[in-house]
Amino acid sequence: MIQNLLQTPIEYLKGVGPNRADVLKKELNIQSYRDLINFFPNRYIDKTGFYKINQLQRNSSEVQIVGKIVHMKMVEQKRGKRLVADFVDDTGKMELIWFRGHKWIRENLKLNVPYVIFGKTNWYNGVFSMPHPEMELVADYKKNLRTAMQPVYPSTEMLLKKGITNRVIMKLMQEVLQQTGLKFSESLSTQLIEELKLISKAEALFNIHFPKNQELLAKAQFRLKFEELFFIQLQLIRKNMLHKQKIKGFNFEQIGEYFNDFYQHNLPFDLTNAQKRVIKEIRGDMGSGAQMNRLLQGDVGSGKTIVALMSMLIALDNGFQACLMAPTEILSIQHYNGLKELCEEIDVSIYLLTGSTKTAKRREIHEKLEAGEIDILIGTHALLEDKVKFHNLGLAVIDEQHRFGVAQRAKLWRKNHIPPHVLVMTATPIPRTLAMSLYGDLDISVIDELPPGRKPVKTVHRFDSNRLKVFAFIRDEIKKGRQVYVVYPLIQESEKMDYKDLMDGYESITREFPDFQISIVHGQMKPADKDYEMDRFVRAETQIMVATTVIEVGVNVPNASVMIIESAERFGLSQLHQLRGRVGRGAEQSFCILMTGHKLSNDSKTRLETMTTTNDGFEIAEVDLKLRGPGDLMGTQQSGVLNLKIADIVKDNSILQSARYYATRILKEDPNLSEEKNLVVKNAYSRLVKNKTIWNYIS
């Protein structure tokens, strides 16, 4: 009964009608009663209690205080004046401030008479102040009726233009809650509710919209956030479990000659403990009989490639082929050269296939691959073409996975009758909370240790006014035999922005360093020209490489020890971190210099500060997540998964961990949710899977 009522189109709710319904649908995607109930306030005006001045916290919250104005004065400031009043109660003193409307306020405010004031507090120079407070005489306040905590809903210009104010939404919410009679079916088991001391579904939905007090609001928020995150985790963990049950994988039990010979005689350095742990996890997966689906995270230079190679050698030991797919031609060539060198002493045939592979060579690769004469094939998207047929592909490694869509990855699966094992690698550290939410269906391995002997890159921030000193530093480094990257954010001049564009930069560097050779690389060059320029730099024929972010992923030039990033304020944190990872690959001390103008936003300052204080990719990723939010961080393609209504995976990290713990525990005990106690969860879960989005089912 309640389910049917919740599906009622929104235009049938009293106070809506067709015109308002159109605006609600377009602006807020509210199509039905259920959508309205799951449209949550983003803040509340709390008029439940009164604070004393000595109880105020430095958290700029909105508070209500009773006291008297004892003194008023005008204060001159750079532009105009401000009116400042001393406001006291029996515990202390604070200031009330007005920047406009002085005359009216001075004429109408009464000294030494009790007022109720309400507003946001600021803490400055050891004093609390409240700008432009709402004020009411205590005598009048006592006569009025009011609700203690008022919800404030997200709004848009169009809603306000059409007269759908916060008050209107509150009225609609009251109407819909009355019509449902608060008879919401429960979606969590009694066991969960008791163990976590959660309030009921109906209580939570009522108190999220019309909280009786702070305590009930906190309980309602916790209950609804937990539920939202719990069902996301349930979905992801169940997907992973079903994947392991249903999708059989090749059983690579053999650890044979290729792996052992390489490990004992050809490994150029000792593996770190983190690398050993990850290889062990991968071996466990490949020998389990289920298809491996593992995400390997490791900071720039942590040694993911050697882990990938040793995983491929396990496939070879079991009579299977392996492939490695990279997002760019430059990166795939680099992987090819690196692996070829590592495998020189062991008899492994490695080939490279990219968009610019010549037709005759391509034909040879196709034939040899199908005949099983190629052990490892490295390449770009070219590997996905239907013509590329493996004899028996056992392991597919995907580098920088966020550059590939789901459909592209699925194409690799179809390269064998049983899907190959999949190892997905990324050098963009993903914060733990995000990994749990977006890749909760993958098993995750982390290399959190750099190889010994790697010196951390020294990072400094310099303003454009220091440019001559920076140039002198570049000259000194080149004289020591080092090479330098100079990276620009744009390729062509943008009319709106006065950032130096690449060609300008190239010309000024050429003028500044006439005695050095300079390469230039950007995204609009032909691949062959790009490779030629890159190659000159790799072979140290050029000393300076002027480039756009094309070089962000993977180019390995151990002799390059200086990275200059122009207009660094225009780059995101993860991009800055990736770019910095291009240096520091040799034994010499490396440097990253972030160049900016003097005008910087607060976010830019935070990014630059983070870069200069830490080299830890995971720490940087956490700051990035706080600055940009999950949607921006993952790109729209994946952030749809996290279209959260009430939870915030940054702020609600602890609730997310708890939700994952309980979802895992329930599924371990009862994988099909068939036990009596879990039927409530199963019903809610079934509605969720049918509707594809978390909140469509949840009331």
UniProtKB/TrEMBL annotation:
Residues 285-447 form the Helicase ATP-binding domain. The keyword Protein transport does not apply. GO terms for molecular function: 3'-5' DNA helicase activity; ATP binding; ATP hydrolysis activity; DNA binding. The keyword DNA-binding applies. SUPFAM superfamilies: Nucleic acid-binding proteins, P-loop containing nucleoside triphosphate hydrolases. Signal peptide: none annotated. Its EC number is 5.6.2.4. Residues 466-631 form the Helicase C-terminal domain. Keywords: ATP-binding, DNA damage, DNA recombination, DNA repair, DNA-binding, Helicase, Hydrolase, Isomerase, Nucleotide-binding. GO terms for biological process: DNA recombination; DNA repair. It catalyses: Couples ATP hydrolysis with the unwinding of duplex DNA by translocating in the 3'-5' direction; ATP + H2O = ADP + phosphate + H(+). It comes from the Bacteria. Plays a critical role in recombination and DNA repair. Helps process Holliday junction intermediates to mature products by catalyzing branch migration. Has replication fork regression activity, unwinds stalled or blocked replication forks to make a HJ that can be resolved. Has a DNA unwinding activity characteristic of a DNA helicase with 3'-5' polarity. Belongs to the helicase family. RecG subfamily. This is ATP-dependent DNA helicase RecG. It comes from Christiangramia gaetbulicola.
